[in-house]
Amino acid sequence: MKTRTMMKTIALILAVLFLSAPAMAADTIKIAFIDPLTGPFANVGDMGLKHFIFAADRINANGGVLGGKQLEMVPFDSKVSPKESLIQLQRAIDQGIQYVIQGNGSAVTGALMEAIAKHNKRYPDQQVLLINHAAVTPAFTEEKCDFWHFRTDAHVTMKIKVIADYLTSRPDIKKIYLINQDYVFGHSVSAAAKEYLAKMRPDIEIVGDDFHPIGKIKDFSPYITKIQSSGAQALITGNWGNDMTLLIKAGTSAGLDLEYYTFYAGGLGGPTAIGEAGIGKVYQVTEFNNALCIQYKNKEDEDRILAFKEKYGEDIFYLKSKVTMDMLAMAMDKAGNAKPKDVAYALEGMEIDGYYGKTIMRAQDHQLLQPMFMSRLVKQGDGFAKYDMENTGMGWETVYKVDAVDTAIDSPCDMKRP
Known about the structure:
alpha/beta, five-stranded parallel beta sheet, Rossmann fold, 14 helices, transport, 2 domains, signal, single chain, Leu-bd, ABC transporter, periplasmic branched chain amino acid binding protein, Peripla_BP_I
C-alpha cells in the first residue's frame, strides 16, 4: 500500500514538472555566446562572457524584458575556428536558441553570417539573429551586409579614421610602422591606415607594413628589431589578445622609443603586460575607458564599474556589452515579442540619448554609431584617471573625442530585407 502511494506521489511530481517545464522555459530567453573559451584567446572570450552575463543580470534585476522574461547567456566555445563555430551554432539551434552574440575572429563572424542567412531561409519558423560585438572587418556592414547581422562595435575604418583625426594634431609624428595579424581583420587595419593617413596626414611616411600569424608568435623580438631600425616614431596595430600584449611588452622591454596606437591595449592583461614603460606612449581608440565616468560625472556608469569589480574582482573594459544588451532588450519590448525578425526591425534606427553621447543603430547597414575616444595610458590619479587598471597604478586619460555621427563612414550596403 505504501509502495503504491509513493509511486502515485512520484508520478504526480513528475507530471507537474513535465507540465511546468515549457512554462519555465518560456520565461527565459536564451542567448548563445560563441567566442573562444579555450586556447590562446580564452582570456578574451572569458572576459567578454562575464561582461555580457553582467549586463544581462542587471536587465533581469530591473524586471527583464516583455513583462518579466529573463535573459540567459549560454556559452559555446568557438576556439576562434570557423569550423568549430558552425558546430557550436548548430548546437545552439538544436537547443532552440534564436539569438547569437559573437565577436572574436572576423573569419568566424563571416562563417556565422553565411550559415545563419541560409538557415533562416530554410527554416523561417526558427530564425536566428546574430549580434556582432567585436569583429570589425568593414565588409560585414558594407558589401557583405545582411539583415540578420548587427554590429555594436565601430569597424576598422571608423577606428582608423579617429586615430588619423587625432594625428592631425601631432605634426611631430612623421614615420609610422604598421604591424597586424595575418588574416582578414589585420589586412583591413593595414589598408584603412594607409588610406586615411594618405588623406589626412599625407606627410607621414609608412616605414613598415608587417603581418604575422594569429595566436602563434611567442616572441616578437625579431619584429621589434625591424621596427627599431625603421626609425618609426609611432606604431599602429589592431592586434588583440596575447598578440597585442606580447607585441607591446617586447617593445617596452627592448626600450623601443615610440608611441603605440592600438584598438585593444586596455583589454584583459594589456596594462599589466605593458607596465610603466608604456606610460604616455600607449594609446587606444575605444567607446569606453574607466575615466569617462569621472570626466563626464556619470554616476550610473561609475556604479557599474564598481559593481563589476566587486562581483568578479576584475576591471570592466567594455561599454558595448551594456549597449548591446540594452538595445536588444529595448527592441524586444518595442516589438512586443522575441521573434528575431520582429526584433531586428525594432533595432533598425534605434537611438539612445545617454552613455557618453547619442548612440544610433544605423538602419541602412546595421552598423552602430557611437562616440569614440582616444585615450593614453597614464599614472593613476593623473587627470580623470581615478580608477586604475588591473591594480597596476595606471589608468586612461582621454585625449580626444569624436561624436557618433562624425564616426560614420559611407556604406555601399544594399540590404535585402525579408
